[in-house]
């Protein structure tokens, strides 16, 4: 039970870390041409909490920079923008999505809900917030990859079932891509998380854990890029 809860918690603190993790530069110092090249790349906004922000990791070892590196390794030219805020809830994500999209993005990864569970917030409220996010994406014609969340059993079976149903329901309703469990690549057979791939807090993956998560999620991100309209 404890391991299930810890798999979705993030600290209720932290500064806004919506920082872009990839800077595109031109060869031979042609910065204007390099900026134009970067502007032409498809951009994915990664909206999330500390798991997206890269809590506890060097800047180049968090989820977003590792995903950018994985895409580059596949020969894919794209930019993933870090819109992760440590401690954020679904309400926070919904409130800041519009301005997070101000610089332009053609697709969206949504990984929120762990802090709602930490605070025992009503599943109905989380569903409403995530629906707002999906509505904003639909209004902008943005394809979405929605990452599911597993609820701990200590809130009771009804709470767990109601919360976990939010993600597949919304993915089906909005025609979004769906990744059921973020932590699946580093989960043990007993349902906990492998400590070899976790930071000392037992909550956040270490760099090796993030790498495994990125490799598992990567094909879904490629599908997401394919859904971007010219």
Describe the structure.
It is a single chain. By secondary structure, the protein is of the alpha/beta class. The protein is about 45% helix and about 10% strand. The protein is built from nine helices and five strands, in the order H-H-E-H-H-E-H-E-H-H-E-H-E-H. Helix 8 links the parallel strand 4 and strand 5.
Strand line-up in the sheet with most strands: 2-1-3-4-5
Order of helices and strands: HHEHHEHEHHEHEH
Task: Provide the gyration radius in Å.
Answer: 17 Å
Kindly report the average pLDDT value. Answer: 87
Are there runs of 5+ residues with pLDDT below 50, and where? 1-37
Biggest sheet: strands, sense, closure? 5 strands, parallel
Name the helicity range. Answer: 40-55%
- Per DSSP E runs of 2 or more residues, the count of β-strands stands at 5
Gross morphology: globular
- Beta-strand content estimate: 5-15%
* Intertermini distance: 46 Å
Which structural class matches the secondary elements? alpha/beta
**How many individual helices?**
9
């Amino acid at each position: 039970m404890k391991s299930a809860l810890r798999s979705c918690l993030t600290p209720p603190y932290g500064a806004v870390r919506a920082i872009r993790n990839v800077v595109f530069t031109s060869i031979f110092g042609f910065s204007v041409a390099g900026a134009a090249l970067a502007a032409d790349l498809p951009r994915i906004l990664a909206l999330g909490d500390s798991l997206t922000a890269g809590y506890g990791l060097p800047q180049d070892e968090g989820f977003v920079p590792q995903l950018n590196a994985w895409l580059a390794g596949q020969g894919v030219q794209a930019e993933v923008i870090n819109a992760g805020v440590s401690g954020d809830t679904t309400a926070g994500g919904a409130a800041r999505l519009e301005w997070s999209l101000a610089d332009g993005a053609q697709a969206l990864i949504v990984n929120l809900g762990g802090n709602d569970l930490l605070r025992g917030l009503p599943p109905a409220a989380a569903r409403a917030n995530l629906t707002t996010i999906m509505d904003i994406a639909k209004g902008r014609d943005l394809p979405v990859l929605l990452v599911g969340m597993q609820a701990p059993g200590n809130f009771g079976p009804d709470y767990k079932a109601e919360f976990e149903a939010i993600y597949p329901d919304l993915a089906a309703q909005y025609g979004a891509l769906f990744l059921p469990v973020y932590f699946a690549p580093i989960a043990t057979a007993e349902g906990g998380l492998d400590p070899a791939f976790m930071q000392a807090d037992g909550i956040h993956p270490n760099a090796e854990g993030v790498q495994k998560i990125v490799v598992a999620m990567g094909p879904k991100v490629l599908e997401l890029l394919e859904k971007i309209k010219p």
